[in-house]
Amino acid sequence: MTNLYAGALAELGGVFDRIDDGAVDTAVKMIAEARTVIVFGGGRERLQIMGFAMRLFHLGRSVAVVGDM
Question: Is the N or C terminus of the chain more exposed, i.e. has fewer CB atoms within 10 Å?
Answer without folding.
Answer: N
